[in-house]
Specification:
It holds the Pfam family NYN. With 191 residues, the chain is of the alpha/beta class. It is 39% helix and 27% strand.
Length: 191
């Protein structure tokens, strides 16, 4: 699937990858993710796309965004839009598809292989366009969740589909509960 001498770029749809990993029950270790794909080829860029709530005093994603920014990821963010739906529920909208698409199209002449971390079927025309420009495209998502997190159209369009579950041992972080469990077992045994 990968060639050592090919120029790679990663395009991570942050909310989509987060949802897919959560559906599979694990957290992504982004340092390991970057190392894994640097090992697979000559990685030129690793982009991470996410919308941020600007008016909240603390955003749970802010520490991740800051860490990624300082550790070799190109961060692409924009303010999320808050609104109230017809049922009176607070909703947040922050689609980054256009930003990701424009960046991928601009970088296409300089790369051999793009790895898209998203299952969003809206990216199928992007993948087809990149392929017409001679760029190989791998898509990372999951079909092992219920429901599957990747659209069938996107999976069929990609040159390679990489099942996120199969990357768990390489890029996954142990869940926080599992990290704390040995202490609680030890505490219970000492009573």
């Amino acid at each position: 699937m990968f060639y050592k001498d090919e120029r790679l770029a990663l395009f991570i749809d942050g909310s989509n990858l987060y949802a897919a990993a959560k559906a599979l029950g694990f957290d992504i270790d982004y340092k390991l993710l970057r190392q894994e794909f640097m090992r697979r080829g000559k990685m030129l860029r690793a982009f991470y796309y996410t919308a941020l709530l600007e008016n909240d005093e603390y955003s749970p994603i802010r520490p991740l965004v800051d860490w990624l920014h300082y550790n070799g990821f190109t961060m692409v963010t924009k303010p999320a839009k808050e609104y109230t739906d017809s049922m009176g529920r607070r909703k947040v909208k922050g689609n980054m598809d256009i930003e990701l698409t424009v960046d991928a199209m601009e970088l296409a002449p300089r790369v051999d292989h793009i790895v898209l971390f998203s299952g969003d079927g809206d990216f199928r025309p992007l993948v087809a366009s990149l392929q017409r420009q001679g760029v190989r495209v791998s898509v990372v998502s999951t079909i092992r969740s219920q429901p599957p997190m990747i659209s069938d159209e996107l999976r069929r369009q990609a040159d390679n589909f990489i099942e996120l579950e199969e990357l768990r041992d390489v890029i996954g972080r142990p869940p926080r509960d599992a990290v704390q469990e040995p202490r609680s077992v030890a505490a219970a045994g000492g009573q």
